[in-house]
Amino acid sequence: MKFNKQDILKALETISLAGEGANMVESGAVLNVITFADEVIVDIKMTTPAMHIKKRAEKDIIKTIQERVSKDAQVKVNIKVEAPTKENANLIKGKAIPGIKNIVAVASGKGGVGKSTVTANLAVTLAKMGFKVGVLDADIYGPSIPLMFDVFNERPLSVNVDGKSKMKPVESHGVKVLSIGFFTKPNQAVIWRGPMAAKALNQLIFDAAWGELDFMLLDLPPGTGDIHLSIMQSLPITGAVVVSTPQTVALADARKGVAMFQQENIQVPVLGVIENMSYFTPAELPDNKYYIFGNGGAKNLAEDLEIPFLGEVPLVQSIREAGDIGRPAALQTATPIEAAFEEITKNVVSETVKRNDSLPPTEAIKITTMAGCSAVKK
Ligand SMILES: Nc1ncnc2c1ncn2[C@@H]1O[C@H](COP(=O)(O)OP(=O)(O)OP(=O)(O)O)[C@@H](O)[C@H]1O
């Protein structure tokens, strides 16, 4: 006996997949029906890999065909799972900026965890590796990058580029720097709404003569407020790095930070988590480690959220001192601090490359200088 394909389709029109209003023929879930002797093969596609929903669909199909067409039908159901394609998922938003290949936002949920310190050290390490680097200090609440690069008394000059006046970033330690702090008075609390901050930052990016950059690091304000939403939605951010200490309160805020980037209307890929102040090491006992804020918290968080762990930075007096005198500690050669930042920076570069590779070719922004990073050699 051979069954009629139309009868099978008619039977399948009486059932729908869980969560879908239309019947499975109308919704396009039924891909194909093949009948051969007493066999009926139904190919369907689903958007969920959930086992119990797959099982239920299979059971419903078999039951319906046997009830409505023939109880002798030997029904086989093939289920193909197709994840829904999210529009604009992980695409770079905003206008691409000529000459700037990657914008990496450095964020933290909690304040004071060392986000600016990490940004400054990442920047000088990238520059040492041969990348062209810029830092844009977007921390409107407490712009500390000018201090960390010893340029707090400087102001960007105006230069003429193709007949237009542009701001020339200040240069220090091989890194181009612009800060919102150059334009606000010291001791003045800045009260800005998100769109205002985003507009000011847009100017610092688009109306500045950055030249060619492999990486622009964006030092974000702490927290997860509307400022962040505006910045993320209006600037073409390649990816974000979240800095946290291993302390429970900082980790809880870092989790919120990651969630913010992964939010439906933001979708900035998270390149990973960096743990700062992982352990304290006194200068006179360099082999001793004291886990003041807890042990391994950020690594566990990264594992839990299934995002890369980019590395850890110890709490050492010289990092603070180096920041205060405006010469990031990673510039001190042949030190464990230099090695720690090199490791983290390599991881940031390789995660950026991976992220760019997973974009459609038209959107992909490639890094051209691969110096110092084995992970990017192809
Ligand atoms: N690993 C470290 N070892 C020693 N001191 C550190 C370390 N990381 C940061 N610091 C010090 O901690 C203080 C806060 O760091 P930083 O300003 O980088 O934090 P932040 O997260 O950017 O702060 P904010 O929330 O104000 O933006 C600074 O004095 C800095 O020098």
TrEMBL record:
Pfam entry (one): ParA
Residues noted as binding ATP in the record, renumbered to the chain: 109-116
Domain named MIP18 family-like: residues: 5-77
GO biological process terms, semicolon-separated: iron-sulfur cluster assembly
Gene3D superfamilies found in the cross-reference section: Fe-S cluster assembly (FSCA), P-loop containing nucleotide triphosphate hydrolases
Domain of life of the source: Bacteria
The keyword Translocase belongs to this UniProt entry's keyword annotation: no
Example GO molecular function: ATP-dependent FeS chaperone activity
Keywords on record: ATP-binding, Hydrolase, Iron, Iron-sulfur, Metal-binding, Nucleotide-binding
Function summary: Binds and transfers iron-sulfur (Fe-S) clusters to target apoproteins. Can hydrolyze ATP.
HAMAP family assigned: Mrp_NBP35
Family classification: Belongs to the Mrp/NBP35 ATP-binding proteins family. In the N-terminal section; belongs to the MIP18 family.
Summary of subunit composition and partner proteins: Homodimer.
Name of the protein described by the UniProt record: Iron-sulfur cluster carrier protein
